[in-house]
């Protein structure tokens, strides 16, 4: 391995990483952009590696920013660092009136239209705010057409299985532009080479440091023959030799963050510039483009932890006073709120945290906005107060927008109670509507949503007409539609239209048309879809983007559950593009969940598995999105004869137990569980699962759920009375007309169900057709059942069951998926959680991977994956077509 001299230290064992970065940079320069995820433990040398790579490129456009470890991160933190190098319009968006959608597009323009190729570095992305993550998600899907390379540097040891950055990386799994690079610790030989010419024992240095590049350079830079036991000790040993004034300057910088202007350090510390220069001379601090910065975040943490609590609070009070006196808008409220909290200044927290929340929300950083509001509420006096109730209501809204639906539910329940204590019925009614909105998104809380909405309507009926009452009517219509009370849904929408009268604005009409369109479409009137589409158009016209996303959600839900796949295709690409453009990750995941179900229904099973797995990895909460994805994967396991899907499907059903009568037709866990039981011959479970659900379905009247449940029960018992309201293909099949049923299924675009209809006969010709269809799909259980039926008819020339292939390295699709996660540093338990498998199953897969690759351990397997650019080679799911 070669080594590269970088300033005062040496870059060891990084030739391969530099070579990979250089190769991807050339591809970017040729017009095929790249997004590179550079991971490694703290101190592994990730930042030094990327800096050296940038230096080697010479005179290229370099944009670099970092995320900060504030209590609550600043929205678009990395963009603010590089603002001086960005175009004036984008700079204005970052400092003036904010629009995250415009900011994302302007940043994309920066990468498309520069004078030459652009290298963008986002450092310390494990601390990224929600707006920055949305920006990375947006750019990652579009950078392929840009002459640019975006490098995202993060600590693997701080990114667990459910960390937002890990979720984002999972979302990137199928993108061809994404590359991964892991920076390992130094080997013992590399540490020995670095220690040459010193009095330090290289074996002892390696034993103490574990090959941590930063730790090694700290020890060697100190010039002593002893090796401190920890990084902290090494840093503090160097800091201890500073004079009192320099140490005070160093402490002030640690309280201000990793980077600050020299004048600010001097103002907070009360020390002269010479004292700060001494910190630079000692190698603890570096000068960087008009600012001073710690050599590494580990230095700042070590210094910060050594400051006595009283002195740290005093430094934060000084920082708050200095920064608070700056002109309005110059200092981010989030930074002021952070200093206020660390200074234990409750009044300042109440002053700055709500402002920081407002700013974060405007930029689309709703997770950070919620954190700021919680910070304010923690210091709020406990007595009933309208300001406190307002903060709770806004906290509920921000949690909902951040996809923290459980947090939103709690906050909105508290807001309802707080407004009751204050005695404001109008605001209490509005808070109840918000509670109903969140409850409607959590399938298990549908009954709570209906109760809250009815209570809101009762309260608001005595108030002057206003937006709260209109929204309550719209939500009531939506809840009626979810319970398949279509006439009620239409009535609520028409009531809202009549109440609004002439001159109704676009948003009011959008709210009214949505339940009308839903009710009509669910009753089988395809023209209802046009009303929903008109509602979407009006919502977009009114810039009510979340309402537009809701409309797109209903278009896909209805089209997919009613098996109108051509109509689903008509809207899917537009809906997906809209949600991506506006950072609506929740709606986007709903769309993708429904799409995975459509792909399953249409026999595109590999694509369905890929998409459902992505939704499962990236959806934030256990709501309907994850439930649909789990059902899709469970049905695939059933139909392919893979691992037993019943534990997975039972888990879904246990979550859905309170909502199953209302939205079971959306999720489909009951028929999926019954199907799995039928394949194993457990007919008692089929009866136990289906019988009560069928009674509810008869009452609801949803034709497709009714037909499927009746068909499944017929597999356990003799066919009973054919349901007149069941969907036509099921009616034909239950009436003993398999050929007509199969033809209707084919017209709709469902090959598996068509084969099931043909297999449910004693006709040799139809059974052979079914067998061939099951072979094409890879449906082994039904293939074997059909083959047995043919044998009972005396047929002997039955084709052999096709074998399932593996990749060029001998790994199956599942094993490659396990290897990809293994290379990302996940433990078996985390892999099991990601893939919804048992830990024992994952252990078997890991053992198979090691055996097939001929490697001794997980580390060697991970190196193989990085060296060979292994990712889970799932089919890339195109945005279209959905048509058969």
If you had to describe this structure to a student in words, what would you say it looks like?
The structure is a single chain. The chain has 46 helices and 10 strands. It has 884 residues and is mainly alpha-helical. The chain starts with a strand and ends in a 17-residue tail after the last helix. Strand 9 and strand 10 form a beta hairpin. The model is unreliable at 1-9 and 873-884 (pLDDT under 50).
Structural class: mainly alpha
Q: How many helices?
A: 46
- Tell how many strands the DSSP assignment holds: 10
Strand arrangement, major sheet: 4-5-6-3-7
Q: If you compute it from the alpha carbons, what radius of gyration comes out, rounded to the nearest whole angstrom?
A: 30 Å
Report the β-strand fraction as a percent range: 5-15%
The unreliable regions are 1-9, 873-884
Ends apart, CA distance between termini: 54 Å
Task: Assign an overall shape.
Answer: globular
Largest sheet: 5 strands, parallel
Give the proportion of residues in helices. 55-70%
Overall mean pLDDT: 88
């Amino acid at each position: 391995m070669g080594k590269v001299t970088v300033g005062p230290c040496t870059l060891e064992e990084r030739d391969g990483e530099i070579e990979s970065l250089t190769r991807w940079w050339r591809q970017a320069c040729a017009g095929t952009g790249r997004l590179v995820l550079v991971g490694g433990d703290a101190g592994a040398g990730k930042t030094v590696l990327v800096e050296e790579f940038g230096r080697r490129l010479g005179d290229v456009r370099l944009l670099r920013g970092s995320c900060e470890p504030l209590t609550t991160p600043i929205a678009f933190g990395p963009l603010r660092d590089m603002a001086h190098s960005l175009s004036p319009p984008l700079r204005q968006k970052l400092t003036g009136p904010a629009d995250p959608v415009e900011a994302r597009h302007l940043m994309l323009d920066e990468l498309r239209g520069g004078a030459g190729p652009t290298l963008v570095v986002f450092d310390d992305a494990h601390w990224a705010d929600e707006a920055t993550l949305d920006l990375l998600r947006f750019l990652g899907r579009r950078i392929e057409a840009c002459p640019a390379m975006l490098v995202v540097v993060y600590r693997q040891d701080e990114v667990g299985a459910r960390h937002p950055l890990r979720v984002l990386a999972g979302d990137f799994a199928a993108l061809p532009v994404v590359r991964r690079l892991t920076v390992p610790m130094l080997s013992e030989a590399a540490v020995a080479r670095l220690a040459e010419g010193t009095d330090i024992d290289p074996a002892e240095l390696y034993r103490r440091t574990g090959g941590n590049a930063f730790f090694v350079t700290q020890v060697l830079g100190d010039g002593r023959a002893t090796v401190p036991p920890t990084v902290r000790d090494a840093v503090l040993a160097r800091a201890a030799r500073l004079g009192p004034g320099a140490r005070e300057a160093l402490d002030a910088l640690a309280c201000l963050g990793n980077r600050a202007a020299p004048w600010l350090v001097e103002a907070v510390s009360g020390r002269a510039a010479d004292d700060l220069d001494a910190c630079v001379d000692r190698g603890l601090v570096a000068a960087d483009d008009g600012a001073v910065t710690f050599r590494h975040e580990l230095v700042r943490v070590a210094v910060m932890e050594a400051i006595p609590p009283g002195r740290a609070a005093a430094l934060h009070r000084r920082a708050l006073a200095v920064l608070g006196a700056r002109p309005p808008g110059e200092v981010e409220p989030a930074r002021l709120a952070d200093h206020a909290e660390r200074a234990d200044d409750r009044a300042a927290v109440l002053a700055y945290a709500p402002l920081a929340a407002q700013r974060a929300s405007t930029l689309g950083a709703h997770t950070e906005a919620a954190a700021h509001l919680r910070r304010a509420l923690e210091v709020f006096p406990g007595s009933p107060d309208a300001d406190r109730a307002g903060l709770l209501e806004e906290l509920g809204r921000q949690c909902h927008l951040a996809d923290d639906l459980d947090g939103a539910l709690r906050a909105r329940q508290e807001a309802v109670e707080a407004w009751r204590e204050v005695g404001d019925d109008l605001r209490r009614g509005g808070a109840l509507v918000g509670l109903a909105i969140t409850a409607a998104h959590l399938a298990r809380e549908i009954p709570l949503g209906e109760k809250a909405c009815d209570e809101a309507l009762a309260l608001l009926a005595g108030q002057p007409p206003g937006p709260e009452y209109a929204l309550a009517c719209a939500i009531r219509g939506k809840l009626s539609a979810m319970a398949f009370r279509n006439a009620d849904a239409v009535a609520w929408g028409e009531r809202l239209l009549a109440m609004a009268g002439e001159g109704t604005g676009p948003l009011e009409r959008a709210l009214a048309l949505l339940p009308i369109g839903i009710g009509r479409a669910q009753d089988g009137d395809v023209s209802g879809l046009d009303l929903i589409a008109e509602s979407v158009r009006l919502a977009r016209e009114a810039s009510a983007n979340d309402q537009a996303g809701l409309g797109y959600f209903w278009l896909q839900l209805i089209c997919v559950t009613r098996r109108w796949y051509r109509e689903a295709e008509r809207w899917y690409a537009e809906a997906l593009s809209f949600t991506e453009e506006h950072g609506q990750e929740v709606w986007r995941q709903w769309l993708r969940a429904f799409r995975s179900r459509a792909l399953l229904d249409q026999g595109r099973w590999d694509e369905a598995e890929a998409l459902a797995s992505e939704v499962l990895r990236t959806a934030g909460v256990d709501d309907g999105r994850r439930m649909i994805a789990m059902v899709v994967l469970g049905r695939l396991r059933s139909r392919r004869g893979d691992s037993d899907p019943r534990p997975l499907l039972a888990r879904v059903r246990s979550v859905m137990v309170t909502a199953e009568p209302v939205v079971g037709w959306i999720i489909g866990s009951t028929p999926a569980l019954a199907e799995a039981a039928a394949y194993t011959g457990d007919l008692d479970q089929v009866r136990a699962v289906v019988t009560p659900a069928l009674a509810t379905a008869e009452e609801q009247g949803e034709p497709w759920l009714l037909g499927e449940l009746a068909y499944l029960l017929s597999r356990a018992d003799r066919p009973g009375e054919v349901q007149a309201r069941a969907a036509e293909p099921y009616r034909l099949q239950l009436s003993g007309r398999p050929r007509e049923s199969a033809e209707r299924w084919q017209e709709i675009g469902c090959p598996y169900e068509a084969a099931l209809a043909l297999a449910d006969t004693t006709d040799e010709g139809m059974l052979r057709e079914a067998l061939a269809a099951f072979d094409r799909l890879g449906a082994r259980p039904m293939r074997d059942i059909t083959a047995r039926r043919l044998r009972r008819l005396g047929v002997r020339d039955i084709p052999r069951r096709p074998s399932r292939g593996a990749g060029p390295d001998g790994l199956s699709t599942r094993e490659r998926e396990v290897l990809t996660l293994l290379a990302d540093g996940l433990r078996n338990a985390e892999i099991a959680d990601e893939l919804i498998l048992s830990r024992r199953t994952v252990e078997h897969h890991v053992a198979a991977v090691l055996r097939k690759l001929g490697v001794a351990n997980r580390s060697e397997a991970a190196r193989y994956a990085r060296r060979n650019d292994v990712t889970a080679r799932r089919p890339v799911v195109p945005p279209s077509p959905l048509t058969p």
